[in-house]
Design a protein that fits this description.
By secondary structure, this protein is of the alpha/beta class. The chain has one domain: Glucose-6-phosphate isomerase like protein, domain 1 (Rossmann fold, 3-Layer(aba) Sandwich). It has helices at about 5-40, 55-65, 85-95, 100-110, 125-135, 150-155, 165-190; strands at about 45-50, 80, 115-120, 140-145, 155-160. It has a 5-stranded parallel β-sheet, with helices on both faces. Strand 4 (about 140-145), helix 6 and strand 5 (about 155-160) form a beta-alpha-beta unit. Helix 1 runs parallel beside helix 7 (about 165-190), helix 2 runs parallel beside helix 7 (about 165-190) and helix 4 (about 100-110) runs parallel beside helix 5 (about 125-135). The protein is globular. It starts with a helix and ends in a 7-residue tail after the last helix.
Length: about 200
């Protein structure tokens, strides 16, 4: 086994996936940042959700907004919907796993909040149901996916990663998420910029 070759291949594939994602989504990233900026400036919140690694990405990005990304600034309203085990297990047990995000969105979301659903396949039933609930409340919707899937038809904006490997899609998702964090901070707090 050639460890150097394996590591080099992972690095090259990850870089290529991120380059492809940014090339495909440059304009949509700007639009998503503007949507988030407008919503947060008007007192609305974002609700992020996904399964597995995508749940971890949702939690990671919510933390960047609530705490900080790079600059010192006030906290921003964001919440990850896969973090409360009592809510998740009660909904999953009493209703179905497909309802875990939709019920939380119906309980906590309001018109003009932003739902950010992350699904590498774009077809996770509970992410699809979450978007349906968000649209019924007239929330804004942003999907992060691989090639699109069912969530693309439900989202106001879809950020895609045109590769076939789940790990590379997830790496590009968190990369694009960090770009959104930076852009939103720059829009909301231009006085905090060093340059």
């Amino acid at each position: 086994m050639n460890i150097d070759a394996i590591v080099g291949r992972h690095l090259a594939d990850s870089i290529a996936a991120k380059e492809a994602a940014v090339t495909e989504n440059r304009q949509r990233l700007a639009q998503a940042a503007a949507l988030l900026t407008d919503a947060l400036a008007a007192g609305y919140k974002m609700m992020l959700f996904g399964n597995g690694g995508s749940a971890a990405d949702a939690q990671h990005l919510a933390a960047e907004f609530v705490n900080r990304f790079v600059m010192e600034r006030p906290p921003l309203a964001a919440m990850a919907l896969a973090t409360d085990t009592s809510i998740l297990t009660s909904i999953g047990n009493d209703y179905s796993f497909e309802d875990i995000f939709a019920k939380q969105i119906r309980a906590l979301g309001r018109k003009n909040d932003v739902a950010i659903g992350i699904s590498t396949s774009g077809n996770s039933p509970n992410v699809v149901a979450g978007f349906e609930a968000a649209r019924a409340l007239e929330m804004h919707t942003i999907a992060m996916t691989g090639s699109g899937g069912k969530v693309a038809a439900l989202a106001d904006l879809t950020l895609t990663v045109p590769v076939g490997t789940t790990a590379r899609i997830q790496e590009a998702h968190i990369f694009m998420g960090h770009i959104l964090c930076d852009l939103v901070d720059r829009h909301l707090f231009p006085e905090q910029l060093d340059t």
